TrEMBL record:
Organism of derivation: Auxenochlorella protothecoides (Green microalga)
Domain AB hydrolase-1 residue range list: 15-187
Protein name per Swiss-Prot or TrEMBL: AB hydrolase-1 domain-containing protein
Gene3D superfamilies given in the database record: alpha/beta hydrolase
InterPro entries (UniProt xref): AB_hydrolase_1, AB_hydrolase_fold
Transmembrane stretches, start-end: none
Amino acid sequence: MANDAMELVEALHLSTKPNVLSFSLGSCVALAVAVLHGPSFASFVIASGSAGSPNSPPATAWAQSVLLDPEARPLEQLAIVYPLQYQSAAQAACDWYLNADPLAPDPYNFTTASRQAFALVEFFLSETRVWDGLPGVKNSLLLMGGEEDVVMPVDSQKLVAARAARAWSIVFKEAGHTAVLQFPEVAFAIMEQFLTFESSLG
């Protein structure tokens, strides 16, 4: 997928290096792009991502069981991405479920979710290229995640921040896998500040 992203950028013949905004499994792909093709890009915004490998904590057993269960109830599907014990998260989950935004991730789909889950298992059990290559990444990374994330535990983000040369790391309290959707105004303000600062460096 990282090579596909590189091919897309080449096909677009952009006049400037693009920034990359990514979420969840897409953030894992974006980190691979940074490792394999970093010089062709500007900065990376990584929301709820991980560098994978056996060094990074995978999804909790509970989250994996829900992702792989074709009979999982909507409440379980919401609970693995929103920590429903917190009022702000429960409200955000209800808002998203009742008024799904077409720009946000699609509602839960078992076929897609199960394929992603299997890809993530491989990414965490055997894939090490992203993890090994992180110290060589020269791009700036903005890492954002939720403290209560059970799909992509925030300790993965902290490990990326520790290994990368240039990383901002933001952890949202009382938020899970969808932290940037739970606090969109704050997340976008941070993104704007990050991109403005990084572009000012030339």
